[in-house]
Amino acid sequence: MQPAGKGLVSAEKGADRLAPVARPRAAAAEEERLIEAIELLFFSYRDFTSDPDTILEEIGFGRAHHRVVHFVGRNPGITVAALLDILRITKQSLARVLREVIERGYLVQQTGEKDRRQRRLYLTEAGAELWERLVAPQRERVRKALAASGPGGETAWREVMFSLLDEAQRPEAEKIIIKEP
Amino acid sequence: MQPAGKGLVSAEKGADRLAPVARPRAAAAEEERLIEAIELLFFSYRDFTSDPDTILEEIGFGRAHHRVVHFVGRNPGITVAALLDILRITKQSLARVLREVIERGYLVQQTGEKDRRQRRLYLTEAGAELWERLVAPQRERVRKALAASGPGGETAWREVMFSLLDEAQRPEAEKIIIKEP
DNA sequence: AAAATATGTCAACATGGCTGACATAAATTT
DNA sequence: AAATTTATGTCAGCCATGTTGACATATTTT
Question: What are phi and psi of A119, to 5 degrees?
Answer without folding.
Answer: -115, 95
